[in-house]
Design goal:
The complex is a heterodimer of chains A (about 120) and B (about 180). Helix content of chain A is about 35%, strand content about 30%. Chain A has about 120 residues and is of the alpha+beta class. Chain A is globular, with a radius of gyration of 13 Å. Chain B has a six-stranded antiparallel β-sheet with strand order 1-3-2-6-5-4, with helices on both faces. In chain B, β2 and β3 form a beta hairpin. Chain B is globular. Classes of the chains: A alpha+beta (about 120), B alpha+beta (about 180). Chains A and B meet through α2 of A and α3 of B.
Chain lengths: ~120, ~180
């Protein structure tokens, strides 16, 4: 498997318990830059929709005078989508219900600095 | 905003695509350039020009793909400073259709590709459920009467003609620009 500048970030996140996949996505285009997701996950759809969601959240936060979004978490019936971004790149993590979200949050926020 | 169509079976898929992907303009046309539906355009002349250009770009890109990779390129994307363009072919039982979509910061390439996938599935279903595909003889007829058919489609789209019970129209051979 080829390595990219995001391989370290992605493997650090996919190593976490309950993580089903991790994607680095362009916020503007909603296109996958790099990803490692389990079979059965529609990575392209997740990337497009998560990037759109993150962008809206960022605009909402800025419109409310709250400055940039540091961390976005979407809770669903069967898991979580977590996202954090820097510049035009967003790290998106798909995790199942039992995943330790607090720990995941810490790792994502630490990793996001390498998104350049 | 509502999608305007010249063939009813493309209306729901095109409307859904435009609503979901938040594109500013969308055109669904046959590879010959004959328009089947449009979203966001207000002038017949713009539709006519966009259809001609989209058909030409599609056939050029397909041939370029054949030359370079042995098979036609599946889609084309142009990222402008403020607006972006997406052109791709959707296969249906009634022959391939070409989608041209223009979008700005309200959408993204990822969203357009995602909902284009859904559009392809919806068109495939709608084409199967609609009347039988035109016969080979009809397709030859389309080529011979291309200009008349182009004008007919535009006339329906901009409310200057309505199809009769058999989907045929009675309009002048050319229509004035809007």
């Amino acid at each position: 498997m080829s390595t990219t500048q995001f391989t370290g970030l992605i493997s650090a996140l996919t190593r976490q318990r309950g993580v089903l996949g991790c994607l680095v996505v362009s916020e503007r285009d909603g296109i996958i830059v790099d990803a490692d997701v389990q079979a059965g996950v529609d990575a392209a759809a997740v990337a497009a929709l998560a990037a759109a969601l993150y962008r809206r959240a960022r605009l909402c936060s800025e419109a409310a005078g709250l400055s940039r979004v540091s961390f976005l978490q979407l809770e669903s019936e069967r898991g979580h989508i977590c996202a954090a971004g820097r510049d035009d790149l967003v790290a998106v993590v798909i995790a199942e219900t039992g995943a330790p979200v607090a720990q995941l949050r810490t790792v994502i926020l630490q990793s996001v600095d390498s998104l350049v | 905003m509502r999608a305007r169509v010249s063939e009813q079976w493309v209306e729901a898929p095109l409307q859904n695509f435009a609503d979901q992907s938040r594109v500013t303009f969308a055109l669904l046309l046959q590879p010959s350039g004959q328009v089947l539906g449009q979203f966001g355009f207000t002038r017949a002349m713009d539709v006519m020009a966009a259809c001609s250009l989209a058909a030409a770009i599609n056939v050029t890109a397909a041939q370029l793909g054949r030359e370079l990779e042995g098979s036609p390129f599946r889609e084309m994307h142009h990222a402008g400073r403020e607006r972006e363009l997406f052109i791709a072919e959707a296969p249906t039982a009634r022959g391939p259709l070409v989608l041209l979509a223009a979008f700005d910061g309200e959408s993204s390439l990822g969203l357009v590709r995602l909902y284009f996938r859904e559009l392809c599935a919806a068109l495939a279903n709608a084409a199967s459920a609609a009347d039988p595909a035109p016969s080979e003889a009809d397709r030859v007829d389309l080529g011979e009467n291309l200009e008349r058919d182009l004008n007919r489609s535009l006339a329906i789209l901009f409310g200057r003609a309505r199809p009769d019970s058999e989907g045929m129209l009675s309009v002048p051979p050319s229509i004035p620009p809007a």
